[in-house]
Amino acid sequence: MMLIKMIFFIMATALVTAAGALGAETDTVPVPMQALRGIGEIDFCGEPVPLEEQDVQERLEKELLLAVWDRPQVILWLKRYPRYMPSIEAALKENGLPDDFKYMAVVESALRPHAGSTKGAIGFWQFMADTGRRYGLRVDRRIDERRNLLASTRAAAVYIKDLYTRTGSWTLAAAAYNMGEEGTEAEIMVQGTHNFYHLYLPLETQRFIFRILSAKLLLTHPERYGFQMPDHEAYPRRQYDRIDLECFDDVPIRVIADAANTGFKVIKDLNPEIRGHFLVSGSHTLSIPPGAANGFQERLTEGMTAYRKNQNERVYVVREGDTLSSIAQKFQVPLPALLIWNRIDLKQPIHPGDRLIIRPKFP
User: Fold this and answer.
1) Under a CB-based contact definition with an 8 Å cutoff, are residues 338 and 352 in contact?
2) What is 27-233's CATH number, 1.20.1250.20, 1.10.530.10, 1.10.3860.10, 1.10.10.10?
3) Backbone angles phi, psi at 355, to 5 degrees
């Protein structure tokens, strides 16, 4: 028992120390009562939160305390805020939505493009695939716009407006976003109230609004809760050029990166909606590093010409008895690389006469 207590003490001490190192002042880490003082009145999208009701107060205090003591997570919220929030705020304003919905994106994904749930929700706004498609997002095995900040925020804004039309309340619209519009409407009808705070909903949805409110409190006045984030420690907003691109064939991301005078990872980070190692044929709008748009198309054309020539020079014709593993071993290349070059699945059978691209190890 003594050993367990010692371990917990060491972990708690390390957590507070880490929080201080990441921008939170250790001498201002609040005890629970300090964290709850000064909440005062609060609203969501102009709709007052009835803190005079004991149950409502308890639910908000619970989520606020849990958030305050997950200090590394709050610090990451604060660091990512300047990188992503200006674009979210602009999209919400453009669509006539209350600014408070930006805190919903924080709760949904912690502002991470690749955030995913066990239920299959993906991206900044945690769209399910079917809902994303319904609101104009492309979601398939090659492109997933749920990961694209601008596209997914526009889709979320339209979805939220539709939910507001159906529910008549911004708070209920947020609840419906979490549990689904039909489920929310059913509970409103069965329970006979349009007041979110008086509805008995799935526990996740009951917590959802209060988690958003907690994020609003923490991000609006972080210093009240012991967080200090100097501007120079926050992550800066990514700078990029936007280019329209018409691809008549699948284009390797590496060729795009070379044309943009940058690396593979930079292109993937700037365009998280691209899945895999190729940009599928069709029309696209891509983000590339600032200044790279000048001469980009010419460099891309040259790169694709060299890529196709290289393909023709490095073709292996599958023979009887060959397997993907044996071919990879024969040419001393990693099996996963062979699969990527040829865009095939390991379980996909190969047959004599099939043509496979074999590239040197590097570059």
Assistant:
1) no
2) 1.10.530.10
3) -110, 125
Checking if the pLDDT of 204 tops 60, the result is yes
DSSP string for residues in 217-257: HHHHSGGGGT----GGGSPPPPP-EEEEEEESS-EEHHHHH
Contact 109, 115 (CB under 8 A): yes
Split at pLDDT 50, 70, 90, the class of 19 is: very low
Cα separation, 215 vs 77, in Å, equals 9
CATH 3.10.350.10 domain residues, the chain: 248-357
Consecutive H or E run containing 153: helix 149-167
Which part of the chain has CATH 1.10.530.10? 27-233
Average pLDDT, the chain: 88
Q: Which CATH architecture has domain 248-357?
A: Roll (3.10)
* 100-147 residue pLDDT tens: 999 999 999 999 999 999 999 999 999 999 999 999 999 999 999 999
What's the pTM? 0.81
Q: pLDDT, tens digit, for every residue of 219-262?
A: 999 988 889 888 899 999 999 999 999 988 899 999 999 999 99
Place of tokens 């006469």: 353
Non-local CB neighbours of 122 within 8 Å, separated by 6+ positions: 114, 115, 116, 129, 132, 144, 146, 147
